Fold these 3 entries.
Entry 1:
Amino acid sequence: MKRTFFIIVACLLGTVCALAQNKDEVLLTVGNEAVSRYEFEQIYLKNSQMMADTDKKSIEEYLDLFIVYKLKVADAKANGLHNTNEFKQELATYRKQLVQPHLVDKQTQEKLLKEAHERLKLEVNASHILISIPEDATAEDTLNLFNKTIKIRERILAGEPFESVARATSDDPSVKVNNGNLGYFTAFQMVYPFESAAYSTPVGEISMPIRSRFGYHIVKVNDKRPSPGQVKVAHIMIASPPDATEEHKAQAKHLADSVYSLVLANEDFTRLAKQFSQDPGTAQNGGELPWFGMRQMPPQFEKAAFSMCTPGEVSKPIQTQFGWHIIRLVDKRGVGTFEEMAPELKSRLARDERGRVSQNVFIDQLKNKFGFEVDSNALQTMQLLLDSSYYDGMWEMPSMYKNQFVFSFANKKHTLSELAQVIKQNRNRYINMPFSVIVDRCFNELVTEKVLAQEEERLINENREIKYLLKEYYDGILLFEVMDQNVWSRSTRDEEGLKEFYNNNILDYSWEQRVYVQRYSSANKRTIRRAKRYTTSRRGANATEEKLVNRYISKGDTLLQIQQLILAPDDILIQGFAAWEDNVSETKLVDGRYSFIKYQRTVKNDPIPLDEIRGRVIADYQEFLEKEWVESLRKKYPVNINQEVYQKIISNLN
């Protein structure tokens, strides 16, 4: 998390208008690398937008920061950090994330977003019959299963009860308990083809067979109703799993009823949740759960939560498979407007299979635009070339077929050799599948990869903002690694260097004034009274802690505890200590223990022990290491500023 956050901040991500009028003039060189005016201006503007007015820097100040940034990146490259596999993999991941939003058909995406928003306003209750399609099914197998599904549908249309046919034919294991009824659901809660069939089929009617990744579905729509929206609740859970003993179950029920009585007596719900709830994920925040909709909680919990209407309303204890719950309604909300929900919808769309719909449309558009052609005979040849040795990992492509053309795109020809490589890489996914299925799937995977890679390259080369944003990612990853090596990890590993830095700057780590005291405490009032009398006597004034503690153990009293404390002069424990008799405070009872404080001495400019301020010293040591490192970089990598271009920047940005 720290790494990702650092890189995002280093890249200064934000939305700015591209400065189209700027040319890629060279502003400065750091070592052997030229840095453009455009790159500096873009990052400067992003930084200015993100900073408060009080934090904003002049162009001159920011240019110096920018040069330091580039010096560190130059050092990272000089040390080969950009050639590591870890760097290349991380950059590839960022590159994918950066271009992914551009690899979809915007019109289709907008249509899917609005469709999902409309569907979220409605819940559908549907039953289904599933006819599974094996992963290794051939086209012939799939056709036979489709015909089987059609015949099942005809039985229902002829009058057989849906539930009876479902129990007799459905491959969904849950049919044994629900007769095929899946209850109420809304958008994003079922696979997309099934969801579409349910929303498009009128109440009481039976859909045609619908294909999903699970197989063919026949959908019967039982009801449709407005969505109840979402609720936010807090709960107190008393754990009682199904396999608990009868005695434990009875104890859990009794405790739940007792806590509920306290709620009814207007005891604070948040305090009760912290004290009694056995849900470790929510107890400390008063039992509060995130917003949730239907089908996201156990049915009993969901029913109780949605049945409440007024914020603050509390349910009776209800039982789920986890135990007993006392639920308090915090708030309810309906489905938001499209504008309000757009960010959430985009995020859910990207994770849902419907997100591939807009990408598939985009890929088809690219195929048409760049003249995609395929040789179907080559695909048949590949099927014939595969044999049983493939399943054992021993198969090799005959050399005479390696350069045979299989498809072309954007004036680039791709061969059976490339397809064979994909097929071999996916061997473990396709063990014992028919060769026709293997070739078809791997071919589609190869085409998708090449088409999208072509578009990624075009975007990065032609879209200036993407190109420079990727450059910022590139530099940001390197910056993190080189900072970690030279500053962060070094400061935590170099114990001797840390101690030396602490000792050299000891005056910066001293208390202005501190009071040394001893705190005596015991659960027994008699022990404390005797200890106080003895420590203020002439005999006990200089007694060691060990002697004092053993003195009372030997007399059969409760154990005496002595703590050495170093306090600030205004600490509440020693307020008014100058008026204490014999420099000893009055005795107090706190949390069941009796205690008194004995003043020892006051010290000025006493060093704070390193272990007590290690975090602060490490932070200062890091600043020291970075300053030394940057000074060495300025000597190592010459920096030349193009003053003419720099003056243009000042004129443009002021």
Note: The chain has 23 helices and 17 strands.
Entry 2:
Amino acid sequence: MVDCCRVNRLSTAWLLFLPVFFSTGVHAEPFAESISNTATAILLSRELYLEISETPVDACRDATRLYVDNIHHSNTAFRKKKGFRSRSPVYRYNWSQLTCQGKREVIRSLFPKDSLTPAGWIHTVAYSGSDGETLWRIAAWFTGSGANSSRIAKKNKVNPQKLAIGQTLIIETDLLDPCFAQTVSYPITVDALTYRMDSSGVVAEYRLLSGQTIYSLVLRYTPRITAADVMEASRMILERSGLSSFRTIPANYLLKIPEELISPQFLPENHPRRMQFEATVFESSQFKPKQTARLLRGVTVILDAGHGGVDPGAIGKGGIKEDEYAYDVMCRVKRILKDETEAVVFCTILDDETGYTPRNDRLLSSGKDAEKVLTTPAYPIDDAGTALNLRWFLANYVFTKQCPSDSRDEKTIFTSFHADSLHPSASGMMIYIPGADYYSGSTRKTERVYTSRKEVKGRNAVSQSRSDRLKSEGFSRSFADRIEARCRQMDITMHSAQPTRKYVIRKGHAWVPALLRYCRIPTRLLIELANLQNSNDVERIKDPAFREKLARMYVESLKDHFADTKE
């Protein structure tokens, strides 16, 4: 039974914080500020929104991944024929549907004078009128509940009905939503970083040692690895440190790294991003494969090699092409598995010119570019995006139709081999697993190039729950750990700081590669065998003996994965 008295008391309290004016039902133009060329922050009728332009498609996808909670990514209910300020189609999301980064970007754009200080969040009132700010809404945005407006009013000694543009409000730290709160006491040391808060926010200080460069710091402490992303982060560090040139950094100089650049695992223990990262690691670690398989009996291994056909992938030093070397390693893995184990092996791709015979040349030519994806009918690779999607469709089909249903979750492995093009100072192998927090795993393909193929027909949509994603992160991490251990044992160089990663950073945005995002096989990896912009890596991958060593390492890791686990 509803407590009517309680409802009335709450209603009365709520009315105290309404402005003295009332809406006429006709709204003024929204207050709008651009976040980027794609995203716009909106304040309308006292509500905050984020609008993301439908085009360009890539920019829309990147902004959505960054600013919108995963569960809303594929929901067309948020699509509007035109925006508040635009005639072109947009996706419009309200405050509750945004990620922490999305919320912070909306606030940063609409309220550029706001800042976080040791005393709490300082908010400067910027909008008035019937569509403007109220203390109730300010409390809801920054604390998660409008009911906290009474405490904010008392702290700041303000009349809730008379907010004025330019007025500043302190929202105390213990009230703040985790998206805006700073739960760390400074200074604090993590690894070789010392975190402090200055007038511009939180920085991690690092004293540059002899022989070190800003680039090496970026590769060690941030998730950025491409040349463009490393250079962008390096320039941000240079500017924040009060320097003007990379060539004139004094010995033992104390560099300042903006907090937002740093990978979660190097943040202070109580930092919200690190807490979220570790919580997901813990949740996913509860999912561990338990089945054993002597000589890989009953195990299905689905192998893929990136790119091919019209798409050579990364072009490395000396003109070597990613697709040729990744394919050669895949062929070697296939041969070893067939000769020495009882695993069932499927490949997603075939080169009609060379078949699956490994090549013992140092320079692997592309020949006729005759690679095709082995769907029914096969797809000659004349479009990179289509070929990419057909690979995971094929893998999903094998998983659901040809693997024993009672053991397929634990005894099916999907691996895609690649070679990357990174900053030249990055060296060694890297492994990507599907990080549960960085994708939704939902998509649908309706074009005939997909639906005309047996593996897609009737199963052209993919959707994965958070539980599915956690399971996949846990299973994939378990196998990646085996690979890391084997690499150490066999003296195979891996990336020095973060050899296994849960997402890719490109142009400053985090995302999970499509092969891992939409593949439904719980244990799935993408392995970058080498950095083709690093001279040492190039010399290694050109050596047929090293490619054989990589293949042997992979097979031995598989055996380890199924030998040491217990029922």
Note: Residues 291-358+394-438+463-506+518-563 form a domain with the Aminopeptidase fold (CATH 3.40.630.40).
Entry 3:
Amino acid sequence: MGVSTEVRGGAHRRALYAHAPARLEYRVKVPEAGRLDVAFGVLRDDDPVTFRITAAREGDQAETLLEESYADQEHWAQRTVDLSGLSGQTVTLALEVDAERAGTVALWAAPTLTGDRSIEKPNVIFYIIDGGAADYMSVYGYNRRTTPNLERLAAEGAVFEHAYSNSSWTRPSTASFMTSLHNSVLGGIRGWGAHPVPEQAVTMAEHMHRAGYQTAVFVSNPYAGTLSNLERGVDVFRDANVTPKSASSAKLHQDYWRWREAYPAEPYWVHFQTVDVHPKWDQTRDAPAPFAGLFSSPELRQTYYEWERQLAAAAGFTHVPWLSLEALDKTGINYAAFFNAARSLYDESMAHQDYQIGQLVERLKARGEWGHTLLIVAADHGSAAAHLPDPFPPGWGPMFRSSVTRIPLIVVWPERIAPGQRFNQPVSMIDMLPTLLDLSGLPMPEVMQGQSLAPLLLGEEGWEVRPVILDEFGIEDTGELSGYIEVIDGQWGASLLINPSPSGRLSTLSDIPKSRVGDYKHSRQRRPVPLLLYDLWNDPYTQHSLHEERPDLVEKYTKFLEAQWEVHQALAKQFTPGEESPLTPEQLRTLRSLGYIQ
């Protein structure tokens, strides 16, 4: 007997496994309106397993509550057992399996005993818009009405005006906010395959599961799921390759509501990570009706796709995951027109994403769950794909450019967090794990690099202003980390190059640590100095580094970031980096469609 995560019908579930014949007993007190929700699973179609659930009061014979033979290896069999007749009684609840062939493996997926809600802990919805840039949201002042529903949510809760992701793309960023540990502490990134979060780093899902929460994850980017081993501690996990990508949120919401019907108990924690607005590099980019055409025309979309094909050919790609100025020069395409078309498509997808969040909230309200739900809406990084810089930025620019890592952060908890709050203090996604645990009344992680935002949200003492740290590192063939560590410190932003690669290849402005650029053919400019310095108040899109004008600040932030790097290296010794593993065909298709690989 043991516990493992098993997949049936695309759904990963945390399951008890046993070799028939077997019996698992639990002495439990049945809550009011008690029920047991569970799914059956088997390994073989030709070897049926009989699943049986019994209950026995002290000194009484066991009563069989459910008995069923099952032999479908492709799907879970979801079942509910009514225990309301035993409410308030202490019984021996037994899960039994039998089979004709001894040793046959049977799976009990996420057996959950529940009843009427009787605790004060909130349900938690941790909602990540993959590639959602605050710069393109009307809730943050954007001049197109892309997020009216988020505006309404903002009026019900708190908005952080200057929130940042800690890296510029999904894999390092998601692992960081799920553990409150920076990318370099977790071991950096090598290649494109699975790169699990170290086992010693306790994830948000594991914290919540240990605290008695039901846990579920619904994502459309494998770097936010199985490729990072983030199914740990999750009862039900769905890593869905959705087509079209712009409808990701609608599909994941359907999966969520199906889960809630199967497991209606509370409290629960759920992590969404949608890809509605993530750059897509297949022909499934148009937002669903009626949002397609909201900011563009059919003619503009077709022109944009043709420009993209031309740019791909000029750059030597089948598609253009990262636009190069060289390719624009070769084709003669006006980059202002190209970016404005890209921005319109992005904005339409954002409007659809916003609508789906609004629908989710309305349904929660209709079910009477909204009053005890803590909702956090954020992003893993921004998006430079639709940003029109002038002049066109060099490839070695910093991660903290506004369109790249400034993200939304909206927190709503009715009657607990005062509505209509807006905070100007800089914060980052590294703070999400301690914040969520603090608001839920749960213990803090033993090791973390963020701090709880709960004091700010609740109007209490205990929060301190800290510089925001970002980092992003690839693993060299020597095993050494190479990349950037950066700081946002009020007016100033500084980016320090650590261990430059001998080849001279460096990350691009927004997305690629050194380990990811080897297969790319387009040229890169070399960073002129190890530390770049920017005045973020007057130059939020980091067009002009002040490293020549302000040597005093260069010296200050070089020392500061070198000290931070030493801290990260020391912390990293507590963790054993996970081993990279090959991609499955399905994962390859998903990553290609999201523009990560050719």
Note: The two ends are 43 Å apart (CA to CA).
